[in-house]
Fold these 2 entries.
Entry 1:
Amino acid sequence: MSVAHDSTVIVGAQWGDEGKGKIVDFLADKADVVVRFNGGNNAGHTVKADGKTFKLHIIPSGVVRKKLIVIANGMVVDPEVLLEEIGMLKEMGYEPNLAISEKAHVIMHYHKLFDSGSDKNGKIGTTGRGIGPAYSDKAKRTEALRVIDLVSGGFRAKMEKILEDKKGELLKFGIVRSAEEFKEYKTAIAEEYENYADSLRPYVSNTAVLINDALDSGKNVLFEGAQGTLLDVDHGTYPYVTSSSTCAGGVCTGAGIGPGKIKKVIGVTKAYTTRVGEGPFPTELKGKEGDVLREAGSEYGTTTGRPRRCGWLDLVVLKYAKMVNGLTGLAVTKLDVLSGLEKIKICIAYEIDGKRTEHFPSSAEALEKAKPVYVEMRGWDKWNEREAEEIVKKGVKGLPENARKYLEFIETHVGVPISIVSIGPGRDETIVV
Ligand code: IMP
């Protein structure tokens, strides 16, 4: 018999970089297990805690609270990066209590080179971490290596067979230029990955069993999404998306749990919007206004350092995120970044070919044509450190009146209660509503 458990999914409600790391860290206090279920080290989750800044790419943010953390089957794992991150955390005094799924797929050396090679014209603007090529091999089924292959006997033979099949691609991308180089490459990669396997073996298990056992015994499990709704391979702004399921549904396939086990789904949104990489972005501010938001919000990528494109909050996006994720709550981050602006705009609808719509379009071409319909709201003054402490103590009612009105407008228009408001990067700069 199973005992009542708690389970919360945290997803990005926009194009990623919404501040999920901070929200997961905040909620992880009460969690027993923190699970990542999609993507790989294309993510960049920043947590500021214990006087330190953690920039995590593959390890779930729950590591900072020293919880059991899981890299589940829906992820793609770059063993080199994972081992570097484990090493960095150990040095900082945060030895990860980590379980890695046997069924997660391995990002191989050539995946990274294929990624930067095939996206060299910046068509999608990928992070160049080998994510797309690794997921492509997973879907193709005949040229993929899973963690279970990596840590079991027979890895070398499997890998060599795959490399034979990929020889043409390796030559095309200039990774090898002759039969001799191909032979050397095979040996070098086999040795490199066998070394990674030795270090990772102790962490590897069937994590779906572990997660379901935790849920069935009444534990509190937090599922940490990476990227955001609009980068989902099905529901995002295709083809300008990542290659995994970033939405709440991705938890079921990516971690191996039934949908009935999910209790809450929190969508994290910035108080404005950002996007990295290519693709349409209706509320983008291209001029000075965009620069103001970028500088105020330090909007530069955690993974690639690229400047993020910035714009006003888009409620068409948030309503869409509510629908495809079944959001039960919203966490609004970086409200402080809007402080000091005289006027703030919120997009409530699009005009496409002269027609008004509140539905998020299915094609990038239609979204490209979307003209935002804005509501303009009055801004509020900046608050100082002491005032910020007061705000956190008092809760939402401690916020300036216009900031409260801004939040109320979002809540009413989207139809989802705001459960968390973040007014700064630190743990203590968080308001629970
Ligand atoms: P990929 O995931 O590296 O294949 O990149 C595909 C698209 O997703 C690009 O536009 C990236 O900039 C974007 N992307 C991937 N991961 C993140 C993330 O963690 N935050 C924001 N954008 C991301």
Entry 2:
Amino acid sequence: MATGFLWHEKYMWHDTGSGAAENIEPDEHFENPETKRRMKNLLDVSGLTDKLIRLDPRMATEDELRRFHTEDYINKIKKLSDVNGGLAGPNTPFGKGSYEIAKLAAGGTIVATESVLSGKVDNAYALVRPPGHHAERDIGRGFCIFANVALAAMHARDIWKIERIATIDWDVHHGNGTQQAFYNDTNVLTISIHQDGLFPADSGKFEERGIGEGENFNINIPLPAGSGHGAYAATIERIVAPAVQSFHPQLILVPCGFDASVCDPLGRMLLTSESYRQLTEMLLGLAGNVCDGKIVFSHEGGYSKRYVPFCGLATIEALSGLRTEITDLGGRDDLPGQDLAPHQEILIDEIASHVKRAFLPKSGQPI
Ligand code: ZN
């Protein structure tokens, strides 16, 4: 398997500040470079980077940003970034020069997507920063400035004439920006698996299913806090796979966060690096069935400096079909709670039966 890997040192220069606030002592911001840098370093030390196809990002153009974001919002980020930085929205600080870095993150996800569509690589992982799945049309949120994956999907649609795209977001937080981008769209099936009620608040409920013709083309799967590998595997088997097979996309994009890991300070889920390996293999199998394996991962959240590197390594090992000699010393696959629990199964089966009713087999059209 030829797997593309996209990275740029400039991603690490996006400055989110000290996280200081009233009654909060200055410290590293949760969204700091270290989780991603350490993931890249582990990939290098393991020898895996050398076996991947190197992809180099470019900045997204302003025309490409305007496919989703408003002129006013783009100008606001540019102006603030040219001086000393500011806020893209709640909880979304940035420093001088982050406009260019955020364009490099959006452009990087576009390059990774084009590399898969052109056949240069079979699949790809874009280790970009800042993340993108919370960014809305006219405001940044949750550490995200521009909507990397949504913009890549729009690029694939407009330039590569890809008619049907599925996004499968397994970051522990709801992919509200991707949802907004395609909420009335029948050509992009947006799926988000996240912790119920976590972030953004009051967002990501199952009842948010799309509007107009786009109804049923947005699937939110809000899992209860404490879900482990069994719940995630059942979600993919019973909800994601049937929906994607029915929709039959030509491309799958994965907003990939590692903040559903057992070690994450901003999530309350139980996934391990071995979970991420197996879940990636499941998505790879699904992509093999429906779109010739064309799948692109774009990095979102994940805030454990020690553990994200192992989750990222396992994911890219699975994508590439290669195995390094690195052993995960941080995860606990024997931790109680990994099996599918009855309350999780009831929820998953309820959503699965709704999705089954909503899609006619193989037609991709809602009833
Ligand atoms: Zn997240």
